[in-house]
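Protein modeling request. Please complete all fields; requests missing the sequence field cannot be processed.
Requester role: graduate student
Desired output: 3D structure, token encoding
Chains: 1
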Amino acid sequence: MAQSVKEDSTSTTAADQREAQQRRILAAAMTCFARSGFHKASMQDICAEAGMSAGNLYRYFRSKEAIIAAIAEADRVRNAEIFEVLERTDDPVRGLCALASAFLREMHGREAPALCTEIIAEALRNPEIRAMFERNINEAHAACAKALRRGIEQGTVDPGIDVDVTVRLLMAMGDGIIAHRPMADFMTDDRIDAVLDTLLERFLRPTAGPSSPPPLSE
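Delivered output (218 residues):
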């Protein structure tokens, strides 16, 4: 019994260490990709950034493509957690406001803007990269569209909107904000939150019907 507990503990420790090393490599890879792009960044660059030998790195990832796939999967796991919160939100519009705020805060970093634009640009050129990230995009689209349709059923979202086009426009706007923030110091978290809140409230809420004309005076 004691031996079994010891073995389980050893196995858990080894798994934790492996996960920590994988995170270390992925962080180094994202720095290299943001700095040099997917094509120019080499496995040697990633080794140097991570501070480990090539032999050690290849124990965890056999190629640069495997690292990119792992980055896409890590994004997918993170997104799933965010969208679970959106699904539990009573008011989808407020949920989308909160989601946008959290996402933009998380993506406001030294490497995020360059990495985001690199992924989009490379996905347009490279079918393999596109396939790695397209599933994430489609799942994000589906979660937001589901929230908007739920809002329409509840009467809290304008039934006249084109849900799919609306979702993709909002996603594109988010990518654009991430890309522009490094060139606009005035785009602070609080100012972006205030404008997004106003924009989403005005754009997504049901519009009042046309008012009746005043009665003609006799």
